Amino acid sequence: MSATLKDVLDNLIVLDTETTGLNPSSDEILQLSIINGHGEVLFDSLLKPERATSWKGAMAVNGITPEMVKDSPYLKDVYPTIKKILSSYRFIIGYNVSFDLSFLHECDFGDCQEIHDVMAVFSEIYGEWSEWFGNYKWQKLVTCADYYGYKWDEESAHNSLGDCKATLYCFKKMFEKGYFEDIEEAMSLFLEYPLEACPYCKHRCFILSRKFD
Length: 213
Known about the structure:
Elements: H1 5-9, E1 12-19, E2 29-36, E3 41-46, H2 56-62, H3 66-69, H4 75-86, E4 91-94, H5 97-102, E5 114-117, H6 118-126, E6 129-130, E7 135-136, H7 141-147, H8 160-176, H9 181-192, H10 206-211
Parallel strand pairs: 1-4, 4-5
Antiparallel strand pairs: 1-2, 2-3, 6-7
């Protein structure tokens, strides 16, 4: 049974963050957004850092000020909600998603999900080679969005909800062009072979079953 785009969208979420900096060991999340494959908002909130009181460099990019987050929850306060969302879907999609997830290392949502990075796939599509890195150069989300004709709405770039929406749009365009064949194959196997419920995530977890083949 071949998986359709709808099958895949029913089983994925898109995640993005805005942070005080680039180091997950010392910097913190200022905004976290998660949408499902149909663009419905599952979580979107500003978050108050526990340690940082200013982040001028990041503020120049994302526009999030200390005043804007002073009454927001701490990340640890929303961990149960985030864990429930992340553990309820097969695929986690993002743009440089490993960066975002590195800030959620304490939110133990298990390892039953497949994580896919739109940025990594798009870098090869865009085709700008870097001799220095010996690989295709990573491109900004705005470049990817422009490439596929995405029109930004009230949530601009460098707003995590806006970035989620742009990433989902680009993912769908790329999937329709035949990229992300690994997701399509995994989803097709899941549809064809019913599995027992995973004891961790409580669904028919094809990821878990592969580990014990």
